[in-house]
Amino acid sequence: ELSAFTKAVSGVLDGRLSAAQVEHMHHEILVAPYEGAAELISTLQCGGMRVGLLSNTCTAHWKVLEHYDAIAAVAPELRFLSFELGMAKPAEAIFSRVEELSGYRGSEIVFVDDGVEHVAAARAHGWRARQVEHAREGMDAVAEALSELGVVVD
């Protein structure tokens, strides 16, 4: 899967980057877990909130991400991964599938994402959603977004 992808990208770039270079760049996207993410999730869970994950990711990245403390804190049945679902944000179908699999209605779901188009799609599906910049320090912006959506973060 990854090999075919990196070869295809190299081809689109007319060989300016080799498949090996593309693969290296692909792996370098994952820098490190967000500082404070595991603690924020724990706080939310201790407050009685069920925390889920909806991620556009691939098998290769998931092999790294699943070991992050914040990801491990999310119940496996509430981890919704694009490569497993066969669809990705912002497609309307993925939001419907998350509702179906989680048992929650859109109005019950609070969604924070760095993608403006993902947030717009979630809102269009009835989810309470806020955009948070990808480049951020710590979880203050996420906690603020959650508070704006009516979630108590103590």
| Low-pLDDT sequence parts | none
Termini separation: 42 Å
- Indicate the proportion of strand residues: 5-15%
The computed structural class is: mainly alpha
Proportion of residues in helical segments: 40-55%
How is this structure best described in words?
Helix content is 49%, strand content 9%. The termini are far apart. The protein has 154 residues and is mostly helical. It contains 9 helices and 4 strands; from the N terminus they run αααβααβααβαβα.
Question: What is the secondary structure topology, with strand pairs?
Answer:
Elements lengths: L1 H11 L6 H10 L8 H10 L6 E3 L3 H7 L3 H4 L6 E3 H4 L6 H11 L7 E4 L2 H9 L3 E4 L8 H9 L6
Parallel strand pairs: 1-2, 3-4
Helix pairs in contact: 1-2
Key traits:
globular, mainly alpha, 154 residues, two-stranded parallel ribbon
Describe the structure concisely:
It contains nine helices and four strands. By secondary structure, the chain is mainly alpha-helical.
